[in-house]
Amino acid sequence: MDLSSFRNPRLYRLIDPLLPLFATLAALLVGAVMLLLMNANPITAYRALYEGAFGSKNAVADTLIKATPLLLVGIGICISFRGGVINVGGEGQMIVGGLAATALALELPETTSPALALLLCLAASFAAGAIWGGIAGALKAYFKVNEILSTIMLNQIAIYWMIYLLNNTLIDPLKAQQASRIPETARLPRQFDLPRIGEWLDTLYKWLGLVGPDDKLWATTLLHLGIVLAVILAIAVYIFLWRTTIGYRIRAVGKNPRASRYAGIRVKRYVVLSLLLSGGLAGLAGGIQVMGVRHRMSAEGGGIAFTGNAGFNGIVAALFGQLHPIGTIPASVLFGALLVGGNKLQRDVQVPSALITVLIGLVIIFVVSSELWRRRRARRRVIVTEAGPPDRPPESQAMEAGR
Amino acid sequence: MSKKHLPLFVVVMLVVALAVPVAQAQDGEPFRVAVVMPSTVNDLAFSQSMYDALAAIQEERGEENFEFVYSENMFIVDDAATALRDYASEGYDLVIAHGSQYGASLAELAPDFPDTAFAWGTDINTYTDEGITNIFAYEARSEEGGFVQGVMGAMLSESGVIGIVGPIEAGDAKLYVDGYKAGVLYTNPDAEVIVNYIQSFSDLALAAAAAEAMLESDADVLTGTAQMVPGAIGQAQEVGALWFGTQSSQTSLAPEIVVANQVYDWTVVLEPIFENMANGVMGGEAYALTLENGGLVIDFNPDLELPEEVMAAAEEAIDAIVSGELVLVVDETGAGITVEEGEPMAEATEEAE
Amino acid sequence: MIGDLLNATVLIGIASSGIQLATPYLYASIGEMFGQRSGVLNLGVEGMMLMGAFTAFYTVHNTGSLVLGVLAALMIGALMGLAMAVISVTLQAEQGISGIGIYLFGLGMSDLLFQKSFSQIVTVRGFPTIRIPLLSEIPVIGEVFFEHNLLVYVAFALVPLAWFVLNKTTLGLKIRAVGQNPQAADTMGISVARVRYFTVTLGGMLASMAGASLSIALLNVFQQNMTAGQGFIAVALVYFGSWRPGGVLIGALLFSTVNALQLWVRTKGIDIPAEYASMAPYLLTILALVFASKRVDQPAALSKPFERGD
């Protein structure tokens, strides 16, 4: 047995969080071979990937904008996985969240004050997502319908519902008169735009003396308030899960439902709650996409054109962040960077977009496989210190508990 | 320059382009076009038709005079917006947003790049009423070709039942389907037209099942639009029903049953855009592919012999639309397309015998 | 209006179409069921289906041999399954997310290979429809059940076969033991890893066959992302079927028949919004579960990696 890990736990505590990064590099190495096979220069390609993700202020802003829904869905996934339920319904929950925000924005009088307008729409999107997730939760708790099944089905139902609403109830009256009848709403009134935070950031930078008084650094980017909200919520979810009774019970139910039942916790209620909160956060992600990025809803291109697949990618981000809300923050940024940079790679090197899909698949496989080393070491630490490491996925803990 | 150094050269070019954002096309420098499209360049449909047009122009003008790059599979609209902005900031002369879902994003970024011309479609809005001067718009009047093919379909059908498989009822697909339906009913008011929008662009098995249901309901002529139609074509092939294609030629899939295809030729809108740009006009014009300007071509399958009266009727329908003798009127409630007798233009062809 | 649906042509059409649409789900779901029964959740079915669809199509296009096409699909499926097994069993990775990785890999790779090998969409000569002598002569029933291609018959034959393997053989006993209580199985001398490698590889082969049943039998064409989410539905159907071949069969038939029905409803011009009609199979699958009385708990060790104690 390799004993070095006991001797120098600090070193590994430093390395472990970086493990996904090393795994990503390994996956990119495999990708390099594929790029060579496609007659593309891997160095040029990966430089493009980096530049697309971090190479300029616009690139950084794009990465953060991309990371926002990943983070929101991701922290929802943290709650549901910790609560012992697998929510693969982020796509559908995002869509109903976006629809709720859009419908409300179109209904509210133009005179609504911006602050109230934003607050109401964000709340509506959260509520809609929570209902969509809550349905799956109730089906699981009271009818024993597995949540993987119900959320997969509910995703598709949400997409058809979206197409219907945008084709009929919510369609832009101007578009409805055109022969092509594109199923999209009008642009939402400006007071429903999430504020762009570039100017605020520049003020901060000036105050710190990082830029000159007349310089515009972030002010020209599209960066909106969403990322700030998402980070605040990530911290809030962390506090909720580890510092409140309800959060503790959710985790207890996830770890060992039977023991929780004996301890007097109403397990069913907490199963519903986990999916409700998880769905609500995904719904909020949808609302923020509408109000921060798209400013309208459109059915053109199907559900994925709106969600950007964040309902699934958020799961990946959460697991890269070890199902910890705080860990999900950098994980979302990194995964967002990969998605944004991958598109830039396709543009600059003119390889088929399918190659980027393969590349992202490889990164996921490599990162998730690399977890083994960290987990093994964590387990050895358990033996040595007789105290469980704080944040591990519920499965592995439950498994050990059963042994 | 050897091919080996090309990637490096491209990078250097890009760096230069970044450093000099205002990169007007100067003498000796190639005209550079970037296009962002929703699906892949080999989709046999909407995206490929644009790629093929750009490739044809490049062929004609030579690689040293005309460069183009593409960003494919940009069905996620925010990603497309990023790509558009990136291309604009890299100094491309013309940036094309090839999808009606990109319009809103384009209108937001175009004012930031006054020296870049943009084009988008399919739509007619050039955003000039919002004070934007550098956006061209283009559309395809696919109901025209649909109408002509519908006329042929009605004549070729023995059962009088005709099936149409569509994706979702919107955009280009809706125009084609409505036009086809109008063509059938114009020729044979008693015909039964079965339209099924299967709500999917990619599910071939569902398209096949939809086609099968039509065939078992006595349909003997089918058509359809979007990427999932190969599923339907296969079913038609099995029982020998006839097929009409659109967006690009589908003859290679089933040479024995494809009657004709409505093919898009985007060079017809691209050339005038280039011309405008050469004269310093950066936007504000809207273009359309029509039968009249040759942007829509009815491409007959040479291996399938058609009765003479069908060919004559097709040509008559084309002439009537081109001359304005027949006007396809779009119902503003979205219910479909009706046909009206229009004022024939001066040089209109005589009523056929 | 509804009366339009109640004639022989329509009912035969719906039933026969339902059986055809159910075929890929049967292959993929039964394969997935074996994996889950042994404790491995594989969300990568969709990617495996696409790889299988492409490989079978490519092989048949280039060799003209359907047998080789099937063999090639089985081989690529085995490879994909093996990869999933290495990741989820040996490397003990979180199974849901490894599946998403496998899915993206298959989605991209099948498209990439297709683009490299074909310059345009072409068709192949796939499995022909086989009319089973005598049986296909039976009115109605003959048309519904006995006029399909070979891969449809094989898919339905898989159901009793899977039931037999799972319930009447030592192998099946081992699979169930490993999925229910890997620790106990381990003490009994069953190699948990070996059993899971077997089931996941088998699942890959069957998922791959699901793709092949589209590309060289039902549709005879390949296109990027042609499975359009069927792999995920297949996973859901395993839950629907409570990890039993018979239950999976009912789920696949229910989902597909409702799908066929909603297509026919619109073919007959019955005026309900297309979007709502398309929802029907998804909605009814959930509702059917709500109202079904008997329900079984999932395999206790599902999605939990196993590592022997020191």
Explain what this protein looks like in three dimensions.
The complex is a heterotrimer of chains A (403), B (353) and C (310). Chain A has helices at residues 4-7, 9-15, 19-37, 42-54, 57-82, 90-107, 114-143, 147-167, 173-177, 198-208, 226-243, 245-255, 257-262, 267-294, 302-307, 310-320, 325-349, 353-385, 394-402. With 403 residues, chain A is mostly helical. Chain A has two domains: 1-40 and 351-403, no CATH class; 65-328, no CATH class. Chain B folds into two domains: 13-140 and 265-289, 3-Layer(aba) Sandwich (Rossmann fold), CATH 3.40.50.2300; 142-264 and 307-341, Rossmann fold (3-Layer(aba) Sandwich). Chain B has ten helices and 14 strands. Chain B starts with 5 loop residues before the first helix and ends in a 12-residue tail after the last strand. Chain B has helices at residues 6-19, 46-61, 77-89, 103-109, 142-156, 171-187, 204-216, 229-239, 267-278, 308-323; strands at residues 31-36, 66-71, 94-98, 117-121, 135-140, 161-166, 192-197, 221-224, 242-247, 258-264, 286-289, 296-300, 326-330, 337-341. With 353 residues, chain B is of the alpha/beta class. Chain C contains twelve helices and two strands, in the order ααααβαβααααααα. Chain C has helices at 8-37, 45-63, 66-90, 95-117, 141-145, 150-168, 170-180, 182-187, 192-218, 230-240, 245-267, 274-291, and strands at residues 129-131, 147-149. Chain C has a two-stranded antiparallel ribbon with strand order 1-2. The termini of chain C are far apart. Chains in contact: A-B, A-C, B-C. Chains A and C meet through helix 8, helix 16, helix 18 and helix 19 of A and helix 4, helix 10 and helix 12 of C.
Global Rg of chain B = 22 Å
Looking at CATH, the homologous superfamily of the largest domain in chain B is Response regulator
Q: Name the average pLDDT of chain A.
A: 88
- Give the ordered list of helices and strands of chain B: HEHEHEHEEHEHEHEHEEHEEHEE
